[in-house]
Amino acid sequence: MDLCHVPATREKGWYLALMAPNVKGPNYAWLDPSRLYCHPQGLQDCVADLLQPFQGDAIDMVAGIDAMGFILGAAAAATLRKGFLAIRKAGHLCVQTEAQPYSDYSGREKVMELRTDAISPGLRVLLVDQWVETGGTMRAAIELVERLGGVVAAPLCVPTGVAAICMENSEGGKWIQERYKCSHCVPPRLQPRFDQHQ
């Protein structure tokens, strides 16, 4: 799809066709959304679709996960007129941090960090990442936010939650979707293809 072309009918997820398949082998994600971010209307519609389920919800801050979650998270924060918090891979923050180990989609062991002065008890946080495949990265981010007293979702209040272009129906993806209010851009008819990495 041309980076200037905008279809006459823009259904939810139309911009998914802008993504490129992996040509570099198993050490990389199976699909690359970064081309989608180059398309002005595609990026705007993607962010609007991610935020639509949270319209009217009380959100105090948007947090994006290192590194591609920074793009969608910052765009969502600007749209909502809220602050943006970067959740970093270990070793990049020069301030007091809280750390959480996790396994990413490729099975590599990593550590994620969050600055301790950004979240106060009860702060309602919308967590944003590019993709939820196995759920390990997002689950680590949830644990960090909640450990510092932030609210990702709570049954007795208006929940904020989790947003990603795609949330796969993996064991970890289902765990997150069962416990938190979630938003993603993949239409139900296409979900099996994304789950099977086709």
TrEMBL record:
Main location class: cytoplasm
Domain Phosphoribosyltransferase: 56-150
GO molecular function: adenine phosphoribosyltransferase activity
Catalytic reaction(s) noted: AMP + diphosphate = 5-phospho-alpha-D-ribose 1-diphosphate + adenine
EC number of the protein: 2.4.2.7
Keyword Phosphoprotein: no
Residue ranges the record marks as coiled coil: none
GO biological process, one term: purine ribonucleoside salvage
Enzyme class: transferase
Metabolic or biological pathway, per its Swiss-Prot or TrEMBL entry: Purine metabolism; AMP biosynthesis via salvage pathway; AMP from adenine: step 1/1
Claim: Ribosomal protein is one of the keywords in the record: no
Keywords assigned: Cytoplasm, Glycosyltransferase, Purine salvage, Transferase
SUPFAM superfamilies according to UniProt: PRTase-like
InterPro entries in UniProt: Adenine_PRTase, PRTase-like, PRTase_dom
Family in the record: Belongs to the purine/pyrimidine phosphoribosyltransferase family.
Subunit structure as annotated in this protein's UniProt entry: Homodimer.
Record protein name field: adenine phosphoribosyltransferase
Lineage: Eukaryota, Metazoa, Chordata, Craniata, Vertebrata
Gene from which the chain derives: Apt1
